[in-house]
From TrEMBL, chain B:
GO terms for biological process: tRNA 5'-leader removal. Belongs to the eukaryotic/archaeal RNase P protein component 1 family. HAMAP family: RNase_P_1 (MF_00754). One of its GO terms (molecular function) is ribonuclease P activity. The gene is rnp1. This is Ribonuclease P protein component 1. GO terms for cellular component: cytoplasm; ribonuclease P complex.
Length: 92, 162
């Protein structure tokens, strides 16, 4: 059973993705920040998608090919936001 | 905990279609569109390419909830099957003046001009209602939404860890 907070975060994830697709990056930032705030208030964590494909520096939802580039390196994946911040996650 | 009329005030409002049924500023009455942002005291509605910021205090909003049995536009719509047939209290399937009238009766302090404005609002929303066909309309006293957007989900009360 999904809690209300988790469902809210899920919905915000979808909204942030759509905002990035339509080029409204500031809206996307707003939704990602709200989702993070909800998750910390309710101690429920974030979905993996939101952990990996949001920028830690500017909070925008990352869409590879649009505002992010993804490179495969030795042992990890590198996701670089168009603002220049880099995020890495391991293969698993 | 799906998005139902009961959980609406604690759920995410962004992305829903909304119509302003009553507001202290008569110019705001009748604004309808998709909610794109929310602050502690206001809601930002996108109508025909422009955004309008409506205050929550002393306003009445009419929300259109997507019907979840028809697949839904959102992924997580697994409702309680046993409770599915129950008639949902406090909501109507049509956007009408009767629901707006009920909301007005709750606020006897409102004067006759605002009642006129509300009639205009329901007329205006009837024009633009095709965007959420088959949805459930819920009329909410927006003063109950006065909270920081991220903290609306929580139950208010003392934590046992305090």
């Amino acid at each position: 059973m999904m809690t209300l907070a988790e469902e809210r975060i899920d919905r915000l994830t979808a909204l942030a993705r759509e905002a990035t697709i339509t080029g409204e990056y500031d809206r996307s930032r707003e939704y990602v920040r709200l989702a993070r705030r909800v998750s910390e208030r309710n101690r429920c964590g974030l979905p993996r998608e939101l952990k990996r494909f949001t920028c830690d520096d500017c909070d925008v939802y990352l869409r590879p090919g649009r505002n992010a580039r993804v490179r495969l390196a030795d042992g990890h994946v590198v996701v670089r936001c168009s603002c220049g911040a880099t995020k890495r996650y391991p293969y698993d | 905990m799906a998005l139902t009329p009961e959980t609406l005030t604690r759920h995410e409002l962004i992305g829903l279609h909304m119509c302003v049924a009553d507001a202290p500023n008569p110019d705001l009455v009748g604004i309808s569109g998709r909610i794109v942002s929310e602050t502690m005291q206001t809601v930002v509605v996108e109508t025909q390419g422009e955004t309008k910021q409506v205050q929550k205090q002393d306003s009445t909003f009419e929300f259109c909830l997507p019907v979840e049995s028809s697949g839904g536009q959102y992924r997580h719509t697994n409702t309680d099957e046993a409770a599915g047939d129950r008639k949902v209290p406090g909501s109507s399937s049509k956007l009408g003046s009767e629901t707006a009238g009920e909301a007005e009766q709750k606020h006897p302090r409102q004067s006759a001009p605002s009642a006129d404005a509300s009639q205009n609002a329901s007329a205006a929303s009837l024009v633009g209602r095709d965007e959420c066909e088959g949805g459930v309309y819920v009329t909410v006293d927006a003063t109950t939404l006065l909270s920081r957007p991220a903290e609306r989900t929580e139950f208010i009360g003392d934590s046992k860890w305090r």
